[in-house]
């Protein structure tokens, strides 16, 4: 009996750790319905003629229900979550799918029932912790009504029957596990179910941990937001109340990837629409061991402050809303993150646009030398490559390699962005022409050039690889049948420039290098396009950065504008994504009759940062044109 007690106690500890406290007695517990009427479902695709807040209007707290659009069941399938648990059970037990004689909870998104080694069980997927707790309490309530008594932990007994019911987090859903066994004494049944439970339990990140273990502040639970008419839905888990030691009211919500940012954008729009104003940037660190900050905003009105934040924590999105006194909110924000402030070394000045150089504070995840190493590893699978000096002029590069394969001499050169590559390409062209080579391409492809001299030819091309531009320079005899060059080119990815040529941005921007004249410089980008937007006429700068680094520059720009007296009181109503981009954050600042719009969105494995400058109406028109 002692062994059973130890096993049961240990399982209880594991389950509580996994789910953030999902084992609850049902008596007297009030559960919130998982289905709530919605007033804000995603970002409205309709653009009204006037989306500006009323001038002089008194600020009010937003009311309504904020929720992401309907989940993408192709990306997040409840059936997959159930199947994953069934697969783990099948590794240890002979599972047969069949009807079972157990309580079947309603409204599950996907389910499985079957038997294994004398145990009947069911698995039922639910969208969030509220829904699964309601379902589990319904099962336990049914057992109590039918004469079952609670034994150790999650076991319920009557006569020669024993049930267990608990839930676990599995791949963005909660899976309720209900199992029944009969025969033998109570200890034998408990042992049988305890051992069976081990095939279900996994240890890893969960929404409960995001709101518990990975949340640096303690919250005294309460329900203040609904009293103000503010409701949330579509989340995985939620924590609401007052931050301990303060008077700051807080809501923390966990969403599936990409769904949290939809709710964040809705919240920001709602506060601006209700006449809250952003005039100050709250300095904050942006990382801790579990995740990183994506975007944040701080609004003030009526002597109170509101801070909203979106963070990526343990592979999920955590949305934070803090409401209260300005100084207490700032102190709470400081506790949320431990290190890395991308704006710490920011030096910007000026009366109009900020003057200075904006660059990511962090380095790229892949170093130039690593790019060459990974490319060579792939090439050596198909070619016999020898490191050697080659008869090709040298040009500057962040990293380079030269070698031979069969009758081909080649160089691999790595550059941080397209500008650096094109500069080196011009230098290489000058050196080749000086040696007597003849240029043979027609000049229509900016990244490619070909040269010929007697019986030899040289081909130069560059592609986007691993957050850099990789240039390949190949010299070979005219009669060579080697496909080495085409093999390298064929295994590369599309560059930002190529992506733009198929999208709206390049077609909508007439090139003109205007930022340098304003003293506004950028560095650390992969690709840059600047000019005038044909729709609206605003000046534009479009910059591609490695994923995550564009957001650091965005935060620097945001801080610079706010510290220079620009104010955010209006917004540009946009969809949350199109076929290529997914919006992460945007701001519309005003000052002295001018407006600036900044935006950062994800674009494949890159961040794309957009800055628009001009009068307010033209900036808003141009911003919308970027998403048409």
Automatic annotation (TrEMBL):
- The name this protein carries in UniProt is Uncharacterized protein
């Amino acid at each position: 009996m002692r062994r059973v007690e130890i096993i049961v106690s240990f399982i209880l500890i594991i389950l509580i750790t996994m789910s953030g406290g999902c084992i609850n007695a049902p008596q007297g517990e009030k559960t919130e319905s998982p289905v709530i009427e919605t007033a804000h479902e995603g970002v409205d695709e309709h653009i009204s003629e006037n989306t500006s807040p009323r001038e002089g209007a008194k600020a009010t707290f937003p009311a309504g229900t904020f929720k992401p659009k309907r989940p993408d069941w192709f990306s997040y399938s409840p059936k997959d979550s159930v199947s994953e648990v069934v697969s783990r059970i099948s590794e240890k037990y002979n599972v047969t799918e069949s009807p079972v004689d157990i309580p079947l909870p309603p409204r599950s998104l996907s389910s499985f029932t079957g038997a294994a080694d004398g145990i009947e069980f069911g698995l039922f997927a639910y969208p969030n912790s509220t829904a699964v707790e309601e379902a589990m309490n319904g099962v336990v309530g049914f057992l109590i009504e039918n004469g079952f008594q609670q034994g150790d932990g999650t076991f319920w007994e009557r006569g020669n029957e024993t049930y267990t019911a608990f839930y676990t987090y599995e791949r963005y859903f909660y899976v309720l596990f209900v199992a029944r066994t009969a025969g033998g004494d109570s200890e034998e049944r408990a042992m049988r179910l305890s051992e069976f439970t081990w095939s279900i339990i996994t240890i890893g990140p969960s929404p409960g941990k995001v709101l518990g273990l990975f949340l640096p502040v303690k919250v005294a639970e309460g329900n203040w937001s609904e009293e103000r008419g503010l409701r949330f839905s579509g989340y995985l888990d939620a924590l609401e109340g007052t931050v301990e030691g303060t008077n700051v009211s807080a809501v923390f919500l966990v969403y599936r990837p990409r769904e949290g940012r939809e709710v964040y954008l809705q919240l920001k729009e709602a506060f601006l629409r209700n006449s809250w104003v952003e005039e100050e940037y709250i300095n904050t660190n942006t990382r801790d061991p579990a995740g990183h900050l994506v975007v944040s905003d701080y609004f003030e009105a009526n002597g109170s402050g509101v801070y909203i934040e979106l963070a990526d924590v343990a592979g999920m999105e955590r949305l934070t809303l803090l409401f209260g006194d300005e100084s207490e909110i700032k102190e709470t924000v400081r506790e949320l993150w431990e290190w890395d402030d991308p704006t710490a070394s920011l030096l910007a000045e000026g009366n109009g646009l900020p003057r200075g150089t904006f660059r990511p504070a962090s380095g790229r995840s892949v170093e130039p030398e690593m790019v060459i190493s990974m490319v060579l590893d792939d090439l050596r699978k198909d070619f016999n490559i020898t490191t050697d000096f080659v008869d090709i002029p040298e040009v500057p590069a962040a990293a380079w390699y030269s070698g031979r394969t069969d009758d081909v001499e080649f160089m691999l050169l790595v550059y941080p962005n397209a500008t650096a590559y094109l500069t080196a390409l011009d230098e290489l062209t000058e050196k080749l022409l000086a040696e007597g080579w003849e240029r043979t391409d027609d000049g229509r492809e900016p990244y490619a050039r070909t040269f010929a001299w007697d019986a030899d030819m040289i081909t130069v091309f560059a592609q986007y690889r691993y957050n850099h531009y990789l240039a390949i320079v190949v010299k070979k005899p005219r009669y060579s049948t080697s496909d080495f060059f085409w093999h390298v080119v064929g295994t590369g990815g599309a560059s930002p420039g190529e992506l733009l040529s198929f999208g709206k941005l390049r077609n909508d921007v007439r090139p003109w290098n205007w930022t340098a004249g304003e003293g506004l410089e950028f560095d650390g980008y992969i690709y840059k396009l600047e000019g005038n937007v044909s729709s609206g006429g605003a000046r534009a700068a479009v910059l591609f950065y490695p994923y995550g680094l564009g957001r650091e520059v965005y935060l620097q720009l945001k801080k610079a504008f706010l510290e220079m007296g620009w104010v955010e009181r209006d917004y540009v109503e946009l969809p949350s994504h199109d076929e290529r981009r997914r919006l992460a954050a945007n701001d519309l600042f005003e000052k002295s009759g001018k407006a600036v719009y900044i935006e950062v969105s994800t674009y494949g494995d890159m961040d794309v940062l957009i800055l628009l400058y001009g009068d307010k109406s033209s900036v808003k028109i141009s911003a919308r044109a970027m998403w048409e």
